[in-house]
Structure formats: structure tokens, C-alpha cells
Amino acid sequence: MHFKTIVFAVLAVSAALPATAADMTFAQPSPQPEHQAYSAFDWSGFYLGGQGGYTWNQATIFGSAEDLDSGSAGLHAGYNFQSGDIVYGIENDFNYNFENKGDANLEWDASARGRVGYALDRTLIFATAGVAAAGAKVDVPEASKNDAILIGWTAGAGVERAFTDNIVVRGEYRYSDFGSKDFGSAVGDFKADQHKVVFGASYKF
Question: Alpha-carbon distance 89 to 7, whole Å?
């Protein structure tokens, strides 16, 4: 009797198991979100380009101030390093000033600067500062022809935008104080400073 009871119990449990298993649900693992890669623009490397704009030059000569404003055009070259969103590097530029007033001029200006900026992918906001130089010329009967190189400092800021992996455009403002130079008793000290706004383009190698 007990044996028959056990057999019937086993058969009953065996019959119930498939139905129970059919009713059971298993939680499916949720699909993993696809990994979205962030490919920020790489600003590091060497670049070479040109720029043009306008300069507001003021010189102190013969004891009085004189405006030597001029259009300008030039070349620049530099190298960037990048650490995360921070971009830093060095840059040199040389610019020819078109205005020629005959008696006194700043014929050219140049600089060697450090740069540091913050990259927003293909947009770079930067500040820059360094050493500046300018070629000053005085050509008046009282002093004959006289020229010299003025040495001073420059600082400014700008924005660059990479439209392709190699072509970068820029806008920049800089102030330069070129210091002064003694041009002799007939002229006195030639002192000059400059406000400059330029736009340019670079090829990034």
C-alpha cells in the first residue's frame, strides 16, 4: 500500500513539472548600449599659414605722437601640443605693413610667442604672448635716412576653427609695445606701439 502511494506521488509530481516549467519566465538580459566613440579633433602638430588685416600703429617721434596706421599681410608658422582639451605651443609670425608716409614708418613687425588654448572639438579659443619686434624707419632732411629694429612684447587672443583635418582658419587680436630707440638728436626717441586685428588660414600637417 505504501509502495503504491509513493509511486502515484512520484508520477503526479513528474506530470506537474513540465506544466510548471512552461509557466516559468526568465528575465532576459537587457541589450548593452552601443559604445559611442568621441573623436575630438587633434590639434597637435606643425602648421604653416598666412594672414592679413589692419594695424593701428602709433609712434612718438620729434616729441609728438603720430599715427602710422596700415594694412598688413604676413606669414605664420607654429607647433601645437595637446593634452586632453588643453592645447599649447609656439608660434612665429612676420608681417609687412603697406602704409608708407615717407618721413616715419613701421615697415614690418614680427613676433615669437607662446600659445595656450581650450579646444571645443574643432574650435580652439586661445591666448598668446611673447617677444615682438618692428622695423622703424625715419627719412627726413634733418636726420637723413635712419632705421632701427625696436624690441618689445606682445599679447592677445583669438579663435581658430578647423574646417577640415588640414585647413584651419583664424581671427586674432594683439597688442604690441615695441619699446623705443634713440634716433639721434635730430629725431630723439622713436617709440611705437600697435593694435592689430588679423584673419588668416593655416595648413596643418
Answer: 88
Mean pLDDT lowest among 52-56, 63-67, 168-172: 63-67
CB half-sphere exposure, 45, CA atoms < 13 A? 13
Condensed to tens digits (0 to 9), the pLDDT of residues 2-22 reads 444 444 443 444 444 444 444
What is the pTM assigned to this prediction? 0.77
Q: Render 129-172 in DSSP notation, one character per residue.
A: EEEEEEEEEEEETTTEEEEEEEEEEEEEEEEEEESSSSEEEEEE
Rounded-to-integer distance, Cα 16 and Cα 13, Å? 5
pLDDT averaged over the chain? Answer: 83
DSSP per-residue string spanning 2-45:
HHHHHHHHHHHHHHHHHHHHHH---PPPPPPPPP---------E
Structural domains in the chain, CATH included, are 49-204 (2.40.160.20)
Distance of CA 200 to the CA centre of its chain: 12
Q: Where is average pLDDT lowest: 22-31, 81-90, 103-112? A: 22-31
Are 55 and 196 in contact by the 8 Å Cβ rule? The answer is: yes
* ∠ Cα 112 175 100 (to 5°): 90
Q: Are 113 and 154 in contact (CB under 8 A)?
A: yes
